[in-house]
Amino acid sequence: MEERSEWIYSHIYPDARRPGVVITERLVLRDRGLCRWSRFLDTNDLKGVKAQGEVWRREAVKTVRFSTKLGDPSRDFSLFGERQAVKNRALFVWLWEVAPVLMAWLSFALNPLSLTLYMTSGLLAVIWHAFPWDGSRYVMSKAATVEPLIGATVLSALTFMVSLVASWWLRLGGQHVAKDDVYSSVRPHAAAISRWHWQRPANAIFFGLFALWCIFLCIVCPVLAVQGRSMPCEAGGCESMPGVVDGTCGVGSCSCGAWADMHCAQAASLSPYCLAADAPLCSEDSSKASGAHGVLLLTASGSAASLLLLFLSWCVNHLAIILAWKKGETDPSPALKADHVPYHKITVTFEPPHRGSLVFTVGADEDVAELTRLLLPEAPASTWSLPYGNTDLEPLWRGDEDPQEALLLNPSTQEAPEDVQWD
């Protein structure tokens, strides 16, 4: 066989810190003792180091350390400031991977159907506060509380409008969309809102009845707020003598309210409406009750039933949305996260010490023992076999699961090396 005069080791791998950049390491060893290593980055980034290199004589090598690793070879060549960039890119990848999940759960909380559920819950709570409460029990001998009924009127109108948006969001109106349609929209996919044959008709029936219920609340709550209330009348100033009301509204000290005063109405004709107190919800004498108890209880019970049905609709529709989810096709992880690969890391030190050390890598299929013999002629003969020959990725040396570096010394480094010039 022809004797070789030059050995070339080439190692090509992607740079995890620069997506799309390929790193090429090249080691050339000559039998005359000259050695050259170069590392080139295929990048247009002017801020980065495009190429590195080193030339030396074999006699100048003091020690050779080598270890087999499973990871990213580019991590062994981190430049100043690049470690923070690696952390920032790792954070970006994490956010990119987590963002779809966070946005999915956020869409659960903020979509129109969820907002309708929240507003209906608030509506029920407001209506329930219309029942008079003294801190320990309901006092039905009092009139209904006015403020909650006024708030319920406004909230029911807003809930009605949000429910219309929720109906649009669930695609209950307009043209029917096929389940295999891939058109992107802020609304759920057609396969999600029509997963079961009964789902879309049930949604349409429920939201139709729910809209009618909100309209009913907008009408009945103001009526309940004024039912059984006393009129703004001060009959005391209209009495000619105690117990006799015969004055004229707006004349002298007689005041029956702005509207009656402007019309100069007779206070005696208004006395039936000038009640001393609001009519209670319930009374032993039914003629003295306001009559609002039954309607108010119906309003509260109907709102509770609507909330329960709306919650069931929320669960069904969101379960269908979850079952229709698909993993996004844009995943930056392969471009930003390099796959862990086996490789050899070589560290060479020189004499004199101030020259420093050289670190480079070679592929895992290279004969590291033969490479060491070429760097150090006094190294033992090669007993190398192909590493990682099976799918279990067993280490090249036993006990090297936590890679330990092997160290070989060159006794000839005590001699002064000659000047190096690569021709």
Automatic annotation (TrEMBL):
Transmembrane annotation, as ranges: 91-109, 145-170, 204-226, 295-314
Residue ranges of the region described as Disordered: 395-423
Key words of the record: Membrane, Transmembrane, Transmembrane helix
Superkingdom: Eukaryota
Protein name: Protein S-acyltransferase
